[in-house]
Amino acid sequence: MNERLSWHLSQKGIENMKGTISTIQFNSQLLQHTFSLHVYTPPQYAEGHKCHLAITQDGLDYFQLGKIAKKMDEAMEKGARPVIVVGIPYPSIKQRSKWYAPHHDDHIRYMQFLKEELLPFVEQAYETWQLPHARTLIGDSLAGTISFLTALTYPNTFHRVIMQSPYIDAYVLKRVKETDIWNNFELYHTIGTKETAVETTFGEKMDFLTPNRTLSTLLRNGHARYQYHEFNGTHHWKYWEKDLYNGLQFMYDF
Questions:
Q1: Strand partners for 200
Q2: Residue 190: which CATH number?
Q3: Residues 15-31: pLDDT tens digits?
Q4: Which of 17, 166, 183, 188 is least crowded, fewest Cβ atoms below 10 Å from its Cβ?
Q5: Long-range Cβ contacts of 112-115 (<8 Å, 24+ apart)
Q6: Does residue 1 lie within any of the structural domains?
Q7: Whole-angstrom Cα distance, residue 177 to residue 108?
Q8: Which residues span the domain enclosing 124?
């Protein structure tokens, strides 16, 4: 194991439907922070049987508000491939912005944390397919942005992204235009038609819809396996929770 990795595995099995949610303490040297990760393991999970891996930014929100564990149970009942879900919580709104927003330098260290610390930790603790197309990054809003940017930065590590109402700026669009590596990706991308004046953690209201449509045009002109959807709603978990099932269905073929 990487010597930079400090970890303590304490499985506290909490039965959730047919799968199991566990809490794992993980210390990141890069971010100087100890996380209480939420980990969903499917009912089929057993030693020797490998699973796909999904890593969610805004992890606590995805477990509590997005009900991702229950949705995974339902997906596998309908024939989806087994998936382990790791939810990464953020310690505060301020720190979330520093880690996720592309205009903050800390977003680079957060991406390094995902690849160099968290991924080796998870893949040594659990049986997963250690392949780019077996790893999915998931996020809403800024969490969707950092998920997409991480795949663009480490295209040989992550090939799948679910991004719900991501924050898109000129930097993100530039990253897409300057490479065609994302043509190898599988991307699920949604935005609400009423997301034209979103109150952001930057302290201003912003139009999310227009830049997301611009991003969609770029991605549609490529060769990635890509699904784009506009829902009738605002920048809120009320809509992302309903939409998440569609993203999982696209990504895991059920």
A1: none
A2: 3.40.50.1820
A3: 446 899 999 999 999 99
A4: 183
A5: 112/30, 113/28, 113/30, 113/31, 114/55, 114/150, 114/154, 115/150, 115/154, 115/157, 115/158
A6: no
A7: 19
A8: 6-252
